[in-house]
Amino acid sequence: MNFQEIILKRRSIRKFTSKKVESEKIDMLLKAAIYAPSAVNKQPWRFIIIEDRKLMSQIMEIHPHSKMFETANLGILVCGDLQAQHGPGYWIADCAAATENLLLAATALELGSCWVGVYPREERMKSFKELFLLPEHAEAFALIALGYPAEEKKMPERFSPEKIFLNQWGKI
Q1: How many domains does one find in the chain?
Q2: Distances (CA, A) of 85 to 27, 29, 82, 99, 121
């Protein structure tokens, strides 16, 4: 699969098989995330690997859209270290870039993944900060469910030329 195919094939997978994700693949996912661009190369992202079923049950209790953790056998919580960011708010874009790299790497490794939103929902951020014992200077950004897919999703048509402008908004 070439890179363009990986981008187009990536889908949110919410049903997983019981096959465990190998530690080598976890390392590759994290390496892909860490190689994302960040403002002034500050790399404020931090990652919590989640394999504990009890934690996954707690995630499903506190996050209304995390039912996929019933079958996912791996989760990664992407967090931002506010002390490491370039300036106020930069951690958000940096963590988004790391998250996208991780999702694309999962597709390349034939894993299924689903980005479960945490930021900017204050109640979710607070719950995850408490559950994962994040320090005061860290914030939860995104939760990613991972595993071997038990479903396949077709690529929808998303290309919309009407969303593309030349030199200024609204000009074609």
Answers
A1: 1
A2: 23, 22, 5, 16, 20
**Cβ contact 102:79 at 8 Å:** no
Asked if residue 97 is part of any domain, the answer here is yes
pLDDT at 44 > cutoff 90: yes
Average pLDDT over residues 60-68: 97
Range of the domain at 99: 16-149
The pLDDT tens digits of the residues spanning 81-120 come to 999 999 999 999 999 999 999 999 999 999 999 999 999 9
Please say whether the beta carbons of 13 and 153 come within 8 A: yes
- Residue 15 to residues 3, 106, 120, 145, 150, Cα–Cα distance (Å): 24, 15, 25, 10, 5
pTM of model > 0.90: yes
Crossing angle for the helix pair 122-131 and 53-62, to the nearest 10 degrees = 160
What type of residue is 160? S
Give pLDDT tens digits for 159-172. 999 999 999 998 87
Report DSSP letters for 73-136, one per residue: SEEEEEEEETTTSSSTTHHHHHHHHHHHHHHHHHHHTT-EEEEEE-TT-HHHHHHHHHHTT--T
